[in-house]
Amino acid sequence: MKKIIYILFIFTLTNCNQMSEIEKALLIEDQTESILTIYDILWKKTEPFDDFENLNEEEINFLYLEILEAEINNGGFDQYFFNSSGDYAIEALEALKKIGAFKTAKIVEEAYSHFPENPIPKDNEKRQEILVAIDLKVSEKWKLLEDEFYSNDENIGELVLSYVKNNIERFK
To answer: In this protein, which residues make up the domain named DNA mimic protein DMP19 C-terminal (predicted)?
Structure first.
């Protein structure tokens, strides 16, 4: 019996050594920790210039989603659009749809529709100029949409991890 357990232990260690860093991150039980670990792995591939050139479409989608969620959770749609994260507004919306986060996508799409200029400019300075002069009613509408975003029953973390698992061959 001890020999069988030892063989299984060695087999497990061998398989763990062959696993990618992303696969190992997926084994982390805490959902948030798993996502943050994957984020860190992928973000390192963008260095030194925060350039997505070394990433494939699935990896980029993961980053779009995490940037979107982090910015909105931290400072709302105002912050999301004001920072460089807003450069990827349309791409983040498409990424939400790709993972099946359709309720969240609807909320985000509505927030985008209230941006004074559509399509939302990719130029950060131009977006900031628009935001400085934004109508108070737009900010109030965004606040309501943020509340919907926060209370939404869609588990984006679960959906994004499923997306990674379903596309694991694309995550390196």
So the answer is: 53-167
